[in-house]
Amino acid sequence: MKGQDVILGVLLEAPMSGYDIKHYFEKHFPDMFVASFGTIYPTLNRMEKEGLIEKEIVLQEGKPNKNIYHITEIGKEAFHAYIQSPIEPKTIKYDFMMRLVFGRYVSQQQLLEWLKQELHQLKEDLVKLRSQDEDPCDCYCDCQKLALRFGIAIQQAGVTELENIIDEFENFGQKETAF
Amino acid sequence: MKGQDVILGVLLEAPMSGYDIKHYFEKHFPDMFVASFGTIYPTLNRMEKEGLIEKEIVLQEGKPNKNIYHITEIGKEAFHAYIQSPIEPKTIKYDFMMRLVFGRYVSQQQLLEWLKQELHQLKEDLVKLRSQDEDPCDCYCDCQKLALRFGIAIQQAGVTELENIIDEFENFGQKETAF
DNA sequence: AACCACATGTAAGCAGTTACATGATTTT
DNA sequence: AAAATCATGTAACTGCTTACATGTGGTT
Q1: Are B161 and A149 within 8 A, CB to CB?
Q2: Which of A4, A71, B34, B90 could form a disulfide with A94 if both were Cys (CB 3.0 to 4.6 A apart)?
Q3: Given this structure, which CATH class describes domain A3-83?
Q4: Which SUPFAM superfamilies match (chains A, B) (predicted)?
């Protein structure tokens, strides 16, 4: 799964600009895929050259022009090649987890700060996912609801466990260093 | 967090070869960090040149020689620079989740297969984590136990939710297409 | 006979990031 | 006056992957 595959997937739903695509990613695929403009724009240009997508320049007043891309037949074929390929194993780079593993090399205060920081982040993400789940504007198909539900379950578990860990830490852990 | 930082972290615990480091990663950091030999060996060579680590060649009989690396003072400083830098946001590339989102473009059979496949994978990973948690040979510090506990909680939630989803799918979902 | 574990390494390539450049409009 | 939103793009770089090369000894 690379940028191209995900871009084709969203263009299958509706024609969009690179700018739109990035915001679509951020809204609908948090914790699934990240892409910066530096990836999206060059990828779109390459895809257009290869005939996977076609550009339509939309003139706007007071705003820069938009390049609206729509998927071609060749693009649809490329998407189906992806969707029928074997699922790639997930890859995670979870710095917070690494910090935990290396926790013995920092102070208890530092560790607690990290825990609280991560909890804050997880909670924020969870709120986003839930609001998306309840939003009737995004007319999700059942599959998208499934993905959302799966994501929420995992996120919720992370929040709960972190809360427990922080609780224990504040009630027992800190004392060990304090005395 | 890049390869170098994690390598320094494990060398802080014990001197190791590149081969050992990879296996250490796989055992202790599943779902946190992945690195292939193609990353590890060149990184180790670069780090040696920069004076972060030092090599000791251990001759072995019947086996190839080993390059055992140990961390230097400069290496320890580099590790502390990492551990005191702000935590990087986690990055995930979760193909399975993407497939779910794009699920409407495939058959119900395909979707169910994906769900079962992912459940199998998650369960396998969970078993690994649990066996590590119970293994007294790896004398973990409290922080490592915390990391493990956090990882297990998330993994367990994924397994449970997927099982529910598959259950519902087999009892209701399939009928819609079958009749 | 084939394959896996042990052990290290190189070369080519790729996907993606960061930082920069441009520039109007709207909000704080 | 400053910052954010809208909108696209390039150039330099980096971190990593894939595939290959090499070779012994033990297992199936």
Answers
A1: yes
A2: B90
A3: mainly alpha
A4: Winged helix' DNA-binding domain (SSF46785)
